[in-house]
Amino acid sequence: MEFSMPVRPQRLPRLFHHCLLRPGDVPPSQDDLKVVGAFNPGAVETPEEVVLLVRVAEAAREQRAGYVALPRWDRGANRVVLDWFTEDEVEFEDARVVIVKSTGRKRLTSVSHFAVCRSRDGRTLDAVGPIRFLPASESEEYGVEDARITPLEGRFYFTYVAVSRHGVATALASTGDFKTFERHGILFPPENKDVVLFPETIGGRYMALHRPNPAQHFSPPEMWLASSPDLLHWGGHRPFFGSTGDWDRGRVGAGTPPIRTSAGWLEIYHGNDRRPNDTGIGTYSAGALLLNLDDPSRIRAALSEMLVPEADYEREGFVPNVVFPTGVVTRGSSLLVYYGAADECCAVAEWRLPDLLSRLLETSQTPEAGRFGSASST
Amino acid sequence: MEFSMPVRPQRLPRLFHHCLLRPGDVPPSQDDLKVVGAFNPGAVETPEEVVLLVRVAEAAREQRAGYVALPRWDRGANRVVLDWFTEDEVEFEDARVVIVKSTGRKRLTSVSHFAVCRSRDGRTLDAVGPIRFLPASESEEYGVEDARITPLEGRFYFTYVAVSRHGVATALASTGDFKTFERHGILFPPENKDVVLFPETIGGRYMALHRPNPAQHFSPPEMWLASSPDLLHWGGHRPFFGSTGDWDRGRVGAGTPPIRTSAGWLEIYHGNDRRPNDTGIGTYSAGALLLNLDDPSRIRAALSEMLVPEADYEREGFVPNVVFPTGVVTRGSSLLVYYGAADECCAVAEWRLPDLLSRLLETSQTPEAGRFGSASST
ipTM > 0.90? Predict the structure, then answer.
């Protein structure tokens, strides 16, 4: 293992953590597919339970020597079909991504959908499925990924990544019961991921964090803030937060949807430590931000490396050394953070919310390196 | 010269073309800068004249042996300052772009603003400046580029590219008189260019074409369509049009703002013929699209290579073999297209509008390769 544990003065130990779900726990959506990942779960509390929208990544069950199967949702068939390429026809970028040599375009080795899972205590799962949210259009043909759920005005809205021949975009859907779903289309065109909605309007506007991924690197990917009159049309785009240190020098993106606390909006975000010319994917850890309640562009405090890969299921797996928070629930003074581990499993970790807020307010200065509060006016 | 003229059956000869403006015709905005480009002009007809917003690219006037000067608008100074690097500290990507080795981030070798130019006959310039639209915020610190002007509700709106340490975004500004300007902020976050506004609302919505440039190449860059209730917040994003042939296999993007004609919305767009692994920038040519007036996602006809680099000032210059349309005006039956030539000069070319529309309707099938009309529903 390349991973070693440096001294991390800002860390606040987890009180509890647990691997909730592994790929083998989820039945595939089709007979010809196998589940290779069950990770990056959106999470929300309903009156009865915690509901998770787990990303289920599936690949071809059949293996043919000398061939690579690339799955794709097909409009005509309204199901996932397999495109078989010879090994010579594709080039592996990493375990997830290949380049089709004839076109120079990328494809994924798996295709993802969401399975609705339920937990009464928030710490162990009671039910996996059977409800699924499956790809349903050309803009989702390479899969739907990484749901983030926000309760808004009596309904559950979730953003998700829609991957297709048109790129990696973020779309919106909603549900009242996690049985039937309504799609609202693409909110942020390619390439944009890690979109989280605030659970209330602020100054009469819906608010979101998003993370553009530009082709040209004038900056490393940064989080941006945007606002909307109606959840469907977005503007007021401004740079919000970038790297603060080595642990997030390669990439930052929103993790969990912001939640209201007495000290401000709490946002748990991910950072990646990959250097520009490093090979490999690097380590994904998580930090926390505390934002002004009336103006979330004002960052009150930041905590680096709140959650780093430590458990076996975080340090080993489909992509080693990844913790990737995508959901958060509070229960009394407990903060439960749901996250993907090693791009393979779902896990939950617990902190005392008052301890986390104290640590944020005690140890953090407003992080000048990461914020662009004064830089955003045009 | 690498350029050679293939047979182009769809071409419709220009009736007139003329180089309007060269860098030497424009006084620099500061004593320590020299003008290296006067190109990619936005254009609009007012009751008196045609007004152009010409992109003026400026670089350091001083040359120091062994050093490279990178210009940047500075908030404190409220002017362009020069950052000097040793030649060892930067790597040239092309004549316009360097990578600063210490950070891995890009910078530009020139910084652009707009000069207001005027023409009574639309074919020759009467005045260059003195009004300028200069960078004015951190999101514009590496320059403002490629204005596209649309008259809307009695005011002139123009989109423009804002380049900064936060990436390449598209912003909006407006004016009533081309003397004072109002900024409306960033409409499309990084990386997005080639944004044109339709001159009317359609079904109660403002409409735009835009061109995301994703980091991951699941597709080559494509034009997308979006809509807005207020010009500031944008949604309804859907893929609109992609490559149709060799001439635009590398890149397509909107060129001139769409104009209403009897046969539909006329959009003149650019295409680039660079293959994925080619070195160099490739050739930029222009084609035309005719869109349904009530539903511009429906493409009636397409014409490839309406305008290709032929004149000396199109084939030789700062970036050889570039024609890049950014403005259009009709006068009687004349269609005047304003464009950047070789990333260096402004030029105008003329066609008879009825001939162009006839050619579009006669020779074009609806281009299946390039359209995504039925693919956009989510």
Answer: yes
